[in-house]
Specification:
Helices cover 30% and strands 21% of the residues. It is α/β, with parallel strands linked by helices. Helix 1 (12-20) links the parallel strand 1 and strand 2 (27-30). It starts with a strand and ends in a 12-residue tail after the last helix.
Length: 313
Amino acid sequence: MKKVFIDGKDGTTGLKIYNRFEDRNDVELLLIDSEKRKDPKERARLINESDITFLCLPDAASIEAVSLVENEGTTIIDTSTAHRTSNGWAYGFAELSKKHRESIENSNRIAVPGCYASGFNSIVYPLVKHGFIDRDYDIVCYALSGYTGAGKKGIAQYEDANRDRELDSPRLYALSQEHKHLKEMKAVSKLSKEPIFSPIICDYPQGMVVSVPLFTDKMTKKYTPADICEMFKEHYSGSDIVKVRDLGYTTGMIGSNNFAGRDDMEIEINGNSDRILITSRFDNLGKGASGAAIQCMNIAMGIDEKTGLNLGE
């Protein structure tokens, strides 16, 4: 039985991870007294007693937590932005490549991807890897997210009965083009420059759609939607978590909250011979956060990666 400590259990992601252990008998949770949750000595004790510690903290606190590790047998799974592009850290998206999966299997330092970055890299990494676009392609990406991605303060704002009317509508943010996920979006997909990224927060709790449009005459050759779909199907073949749909799967509209409560991801290719739209749909708190963290833990433990996950068809 593995001993697990969640540093930051009271946050949105930490609480989701904690709740996922309710019916598992293969882990023992190490709990910290609420009055000591910011005490470095008590945190250090529990981190070093654990086999696996989840960090569900702001970046600075995650960096501090890593500095407290003395037990070489402790595996750290960090859900913050702090280590996603750091040397020595496995990037926790196993489906991207065999190398990514092996890094998770063999590392005791694992960085869980950001929610938007998960959708973006699920699309752009295969396009670059298989030579469908050059590394310097001028990528534009837009995304819709439920408000739970905004953290405790954002959630409270949206769920306040006396909230501002503006929150009734979708809201575009990261207007300075300096969103915190851009660094990993560029690095993981091996782009030569950051994309234009326009995230939109909406008035529903959970779910996300990340979309990347492409001009076929700007790709390395003029690919058809069928060509692109075939490549994605091959790239993610064998995965029960990342599912590439057949062409024509959606004939009307792609909703952004359909995967709420799920831990899988759905990729679709739509468009025509001139303009392609590739979308990745998932739960920002599932494959975009706590579900991905649990999957990484399962892989690191050497057990079925789907253990404790909620997967649809």
